[in-house]
Amino acid sequence: MNELIADIYDAAAGNRSWSSVLTSASEVLGVMGCQMIGVALDNGAIRFSHASAGIPCETELEYVRSYHGVDPRIPLLLGQADGEWLYDQDRFSEQQALANPYYRDLLIPYGSRHTAATKLVEHDGEVTLLAFLAPRGAPGFLAPHREVLTTLAFHLCKAARIYQQTRRLTNQALVGGELLQRMNRPAFLLDAERRCTFMNKVASRFLAEETCLLLARDRLSALAGCTDRELAHAVKTMSAELKAGGLTARRIVRLPAARGTAIASLTPFVPNETMYAFGVHTLFLMVIHVLGAPLTPDVLLWEAAFDLTPSQSRVALQLFYGQSAKQTATILGIADTTFKSHLNELFAKTGTRRQAQLVLALAEMQAY
User: What is the C-alpha separation between 250 and 255, in angstroms, rounded?
Assistant: First the structure.
């Protein structure tokens, strides 16, 4: 414990990465993971985001893009004293959790349910929040956990104040960049003119190894004329829909890659809906899915192609593997009525009517 506390202050001083410290803290508690974010109180912009190794970057992206606005813990945390822990197992019943999109569609599908969250510091228009996630199926945070968390809270609050005072505020656009850098697929951020404002390291390698895309004068183009027109149309259509104030779905564009077929999924990131993690202008996240004969289904591609929620994609994955309706409900720990609701949404989004057609549609996308 003393070593962990020393590491916390090292991270506050910039001598150690917060990710490694949060990973160590999660291991000490024996929980799934931990995340710490700084949020500007005036406009909700993310000033920084650090997560342990146990938090998938996809979860962070979905939270930033869609689920922070329905997180029921936030208003409660803002009303608490610094370092006071909020245990959602004490505040939200299972029924309340299943009725809330944050728990039902994000936290539970990604393998957690109970969290212990606290406000570390609120000063100079910025609040720092931290949360530990317990794995789903665990009883939550028991007395031994809470004793350790009470000890850690004092030091975390002091470290957060030091960190807030000594660090130079990170450029807001780089917060989203840090998330994308952890993705294992090529990822680009494009503006409405297809100028590339950011690419992760995997994307840089993809450009060097493949010949289907070209980055010239910061503008990303497809070498094949028909593909480039399709890409331009997708960006232009989404931009027009956003300007009109309507909702816009994700788009997919086929790319003839050298090592097989690749598919680009495009997702809009609107500043006020993504807590300004990617800057103050609307951008489009383009993720490349290289197809061929993957060992496991590309669930992220299904979500992009059919606009599935994480819960729906988990149901689709079990059906893809040949599980029955009853087996799927049991494996995922959901009620039969919940399964039927997800299945009906899958039918509607994929344009199918039966489970066999649904699996075929998923398989065709997998081998597009």
Answer: 16
Closest alpha carbon to 179 in 46, 286, 304, 49: 49
Pair type for strands 112-123 and 251-257 = unpaired
pTM score of the predicted model: 0.62
The dihedral built from the CA positions of residue 29, 31, 32 and 37, taken in this order, carries a sign that is: negative
Residue-wise pLDDT tens digits, 45-91:
777 788 898 887 777 777 777 788 889 999 999 999 999 999 999 99
What whole-number distance in Å separates Cα of residue 285 and Cα of residue 305? 14
Which amino acid makes up residue 13? Answer: A
**Nearest in space to 39 (alpha carbons), one of 152, 123, 107:** 123
Return the sign of the alpha-carbon dihedral for residues 144, 146, 152, 154.
negative
**φ/ψ of residue 10, rounded to 5:** -65, -40
Phi, psi for 146 (deg, rounded to 5): -65, -30
- N- to C-terminal Cα separation, the chain: 51
Which residues share a beta bridge with 265?
252, 287
